[in-house]
Amino acid sequence: MNLLVAIDFSETTGEIVTHACTLADALRAKVFLLHVIAPATPVLDMENSIEPLMPAQEQPASQEGILPESRAREQLLEIAETLKTRGIEVSAHIAHSDEVKAIIEAAERFRAGMIILGSHGHGALYHLLIGSVSEGVVRRAQCPVVIVPAGKK
Q1: Per CATH, is 2-148 categorized as 3.40.50.620?
Q2: β partners of residue 91
Q3: What residue segments make up the domains of the chain, in order of their start?
Q4: pLDDT in the model for residue 131
Q5: Cα separation of 80 and 74, whole Å?
Q6: pLDDT digits over 49-102, tens only?
C-alpha cells in the first residue's frame, strides 16, 4: 500500500507524521510526503508540477542562488529522514498548485491507498470565505482519507 501524507508545517505536522508512521508500520506501506506551495493569487496562471526532492547539495540553484521553497525542502527532507531511520520506505515531493488539486493528483499519481492530512480547526467564517483543504480532499478523493485534527487531545 502507498500512503500520501500531506505536510503543511502547521502545528499538526508532528501528529500527522506520528500517525503516518503508525499506519506505515502496520500496513508495511510506502510513504509519499507532499508539501504544496499554493499560487500567491488565484488570478495567476502558474504551471503545476510535482517534483521529487533531493538533498540540498544536489539541488540545482535558481538564478538568485536560493530556491524560494528551500526551507520547506529542508524540513520535508528531515521528516523523510526520520521515517527512513524507522525503516519506512519514503519519498518527498513538492507541488506548485492549488492544495486540493495537488493532493488529489498526487494520490492518483502515486496510487495512494490512503491520504493523511491535518485539519487546522479554523472557525466558520474562515471556512465560509476560504474553504477547507481537508473537506475538498475528502469530497474528491478516490481512497480513504485520514484527517488529523488540530487542537487539544
Answers
A1: yes
A2: 32
A3: 2-148
A4: 57
A5: 10
A6: 566 666 555 554 443 333 357 888 999 999 999 999 999 999 999 999 899 999
44, amino acid identity = L
Q: What is the three-class DSSP state of 14?
A: helix
- Segment 128-137, tens digit of pLDDT: 544 588 889 9
Three-class SS string for the chain? CEEEEECCCCCCHHHHHHHHHHHHHHHCCEEEEEEEECCCCCCCCCCCCEEECCCHHHCCCCCCCCCCCHHHHHHHHHHHHHHHHCCCCEEEEEEECCHHHHHHHHHHHCCCCEEEEECCCCCHHHHHHHCCHHHHHHHHCCCCEEEECCCCC
Cβ-count burial of 39 within 10 angstroms (0-12 exposed, 13-18 middle, 19+ buried)? middle
Phi, psi dihedrals of residue 57, rounded to the nearest 5°: -70, -15
